[in-house]
Amino acid sequence: MKILKERFPNHSQSTLLSIFSLEYQKRIKRTISRHHAPDAIESHYQRYLSEAKARPTAPVLLELANEVDLSPALMARIILDRFLQGLEGGVPSKIVLNSMLKEPSLIPDQMLANNIYQCTINDCCYGPLVDCIKHAIGQEHEVLLCEKLKERNLSFLDENQLRVMGYDKTPDIILEVPIAVEGHIVHWIESKASFGDDHSHRTYLNEQFWSYWNRFGPGLVIYWYGFIGELDCQRDRGILLKDCFPTDIVTLSHAAQQDRLPQEPE
Amino acid sequence: MAALLESLLLKKVDNKTVLDWLKNNKEDDRLAFREPAVTVLKQEFVPFILNFLRVQSSQALTHGPATPAKTPSRHKPAAQTQSFSDKRGSRSAGGGAGSRSASRVQLFSPAPSVSPGTEWDAAGQSGSFNSPPFTPGCSPASRPSGADRRSNQRINLGDYMVSPPDVQNSPSFQSQKARRRGGGSMAVGGQGKHGGWRGGHQSDERRSGRGGGGGGGGGGGNSRISEQASPPSVEQLNFNNLEDFPPVGSPISPPASKPSRRINPTPVSAERPHSKPKTCFTSTPFSESSGPSLIAEALEGPMTVGSPPSLQEERELLKREKTKRAQQVGSPLSSSLDPCTPTKSGLRVGSKVTPDLQTPCPEPFKVTFSLELDLLAELYCTCISENLVPNIFLELFFVVQLLTSRSPHTHDEEEQGSLCVGNTDVLERSYLRQVHNCVYFAVKVLENQFQLVSNLDKCTLRLLAENERVASFSPDLRDLLTQAQEGSTAKLSLSVPTFIHSVPFQPATDNRSNFGSDRAFHIFKKQRDIFYEVLREWEDYHKEPGWSFDPALGSRIRGMMSQLTSAGNHSHFARLFLKQLVQMCKGPSVNSSPGDTADADLLGMLGADSLGRLKRLEERLIQPQGVAGPCPPPSFPDHQEFFRDFLQAASCCQLNQHLQDSLCQQLLQLDEVSILSPPSIGEGEGDLEQQDEKQRFTSVLLLARLLAKFLGFISFLPYQTSERPSREIQEAAIALRSKSVPVLDVCAVLSNSMKRRRTILTVPWLVEFLSMLDFIGPRLLCYRTALGKLLLLYRKMLLGRCGEMCYLNKLLMVSVLGWLFQIPVIPEDIFFTNEFTEVAKLEDGITNAAGLDCIPLVDQQLLYTCCPFLGEFRKLLAAFVSGSAAKSGGIIRKITPHFCRPEGHAACQQVTAETAGGP
């Protein structure tokens, strides 16, 4: 992390962290299948069992994860899964699995619980702790967005209100009266507390942004931790990217005074 | 008819009598003149006049697309004058005064009632007549007759349809293409297409006309060139014999109205001695021999090429046969024949401006026959003013073509002089052969039809006013045009690339409670996204070469349809589909107020939307404007194409049914929309309100037209065939389909609209609906009646008369109706027969009903939006301008200044340059 900061002094730490996290996730995604193969699981499990026996106090599982280059939290999940299978015979439910990962004290095996706990707190990108942090950051930015909107006196509906009304897909914010940002109409705003790289942006486009467009027209996505500039190529099609709350906002009442908007919808 | 025209030209009949007769639509259609025995039917005389003018001018018109131009009559060498009079002599011996009519190429084949000596009967009865000119190796006698005859005819007719492309290949036809109606070249592009048959039989007609001249008239003994040069006769078959000539023709045969055009002399040459008697028509391309020889003719002009002796013999034989027949058959048959209206113009025709080597500058003092031209112009104008022609804009287009004609001949003026002297037959004189005469005639007509002309768009008026020919022939007309141009407001509505908007999600109709199950709700969620994904993909790729809809998107769409079906979500999707359709295709000017359009235009001109401008510029450069003629076939422009292709790819009957239901309901609702009439004059506020109402009307009309087109498309989709089905199939289909209820009761809608004087709203959308008819549709009683009604309405809608309807309202109606009568699926004979009108009657309006017809609702903008083909005038004139510039060493501007403004060219060019350089 320090090296990164020295290399890119112009970027904030959180941006770098977000990019690092994304890259790490990508790498893990590329290799994860290798560790999910039944024989790989078995061999990991057996290694964990033998090493834990040999050195009961050492963080063997964490070391194992680092050794095979797998996210510790994911390694913990694999091993726990395998352990529960051995215990109950069948495939354990996801709920049980997740709750045990979140709360290792629920794990019947004391030693395993210790190891799992070490893994989850030592993982910077995966695991319940990270998820929790991410969620909190996301919430924080959504709240930030709402506050900014309120500051500008723009009325809007948030996700929860929209769900109640029966919308099938909902962005974070729908503006009750559209605004223009840099000459582009914006009906909705989605807040992303992460860095927008091509991979994640493509996924978001397909799963979220286009769906919003399909229902609410053109809108704005805020990647609070920045994004790759070239991705902002759908402006004319109705998806605008920003890395902060826009300053150049034209509201409808202003528009009336300033002649017509260049892109006023026909 | 010919006799009537001849008498007119010889001043034997008072012009006024004839004009009055033409104007009078109350009394009998017949005009008796000269001798009581000879009467003329109006519905025969008018096509004859139109035909006559086309033939006359065919030589001069080498540019622009095809108005219903006809057989090009080639050079008439002085030497041939003799043969002409010979011909006359022989014919008058046979048939008397009227006989000549048949010797001309007729755009509208005349009914034989007037011409006792015509050959129709001969042709109709002797099967052998069909083939000889084609097949040197097959003597007329060897042709089967009797029972076999009919089938042979079919084969021949069908063969014709295949042949045009062959003919087209020859370079010499390039120039002719322009003159011919679009059909021919359409056939080149793709014969299986809509209207392909028409193309086929048009050229068929053209060629056979020529052949007929030889076979039927006195030309048989002449050299080959004389065959081509002489005004050829058309063999009239016995149209009345429905057995022989089914009204709509078999898939291979054109409608009965034109069975006569089957004789083609061009392939008959010594170069093709190996043709097989029957199959050769399809299998042997004509071009091989005909092309070069035609070129030779065109180039050599008067230098005559001898025709093959075998042909000559045949012609002689035929001539004799014909004369015999002509003598036998003396009495006119019933008048309810099917004359043809081959005025239909097809698709775009390739050649825009023929590169002329030398075009003589037309000069007023070189005009010959000015008296006769005046008379012809007056006759012609009367036909136009009285709506006796099927499409007034087509005629106007023809006139503008004459105005801009570039006759390639400069060297034969002396010859012309000798012709004038030598040619004693008033009908054989070439009135419109010289460019001077053409321009003179055109200017006369334009002067006469000034009111109509003045309603064209500003740019067209400007081009007309600046046309040096107009200026030199009639400074008055130029001044009038300049004046009119200042008053004109209409600009050509450019199709503005609209920013796509999605259909908003409405909780009221779209949330879970509107679906039967969670599953249906979630499936629809996905489908909405797929639909837009497909739309976006189409947007991105559809203009790329090699991309086609079905392979790229078809399977995804069909997958979606099967999902829809399993979830029962069709109604939801139909709603989404229609809403999106309306959003994207409703028309450019709908949402902006009238003041804004000008500003937006100006803004666009200055490159505000630079990307769009650049794109348009690119399109222009890639695809220079071709003049397509004033009667384009129905089309689905811009985004409409997506929706059409989507429906075709989906081919989902459930979806279509839901769409139909919804479209019908919406259309009938729109049709009922109330538009307020203007309040009493003098109120300042009234103006604004009136503007709003007008705006609302525009919006409703454009929307209704869009919906009607799609309703028509979906409704007739199951019956669409690429070719006109055979008569048997047609009969069966009519019998079958007349039992089921049509999707929309067009007659009731139309009657109701007439009664309530709301035709200005109803007719334009009905026209869109009917333009989607399949080949059999027009023959079904309900649509036949509706078409008949529309026809009667058209005839009644005289622009020149002050009626209760406003001029522009009428102009819009006349324009859309005229267009409808010209599109391929509408039978050609519709205009000059009673078949359609006899089942129809016009409802009188309820006098106290405050209808829409009397409110000035239509403006030029709307007129041009509904009838984009009116822009063809501008293109034609602009092409002429660029052509002359090229000639005088200037640059050909491929980008025509579509925003021509009084500021002048410099400004325009500057803007163009800026735009080009901008992004």
TrEMBL record, chain A:
Keywords: Cytoplasm, Nucleus
GO cellular component terms, A-Z: cytoplasm; nucleus
One Pfam family recorded for the sequence: TPD
Cell compartments where the protein resides: Cytoplasm; Nucleus
Key word Protease present: no
GO biological process: erythrocyte differentiation
Cross-referenced InterPro entries: CDIN1 (IPR029404)
Name the record gives this protein: CDAN1-interacting nuclease 1
Lineage: Eukaryota, Metazoa, Chordata, Craniata, Vertebrata
TrEMBL record, chain B:
A matching Pfam family: Codanin-1_C
InterPro entries with a match to the protein in the record: Codanin-1, Codanin-1_C
Any one annotated GO CC term: nucleus
Bias (Pro residues) ranges: 248-257
Location of the Codanin-1 C-terminal domain: 853-899
GO BP annotations listed: chromatin organization
Gly residues composition-biased segments: 183-199, 210-222
Region (Disordered): 62-292, 324-351
Residue stretches of biased makeup (Polar residues): 166-176, 223-241, 280-292, 326-344
Protein name: Codanin-1 C-terminal domain-containing protein
Species: Champsocephalus esox
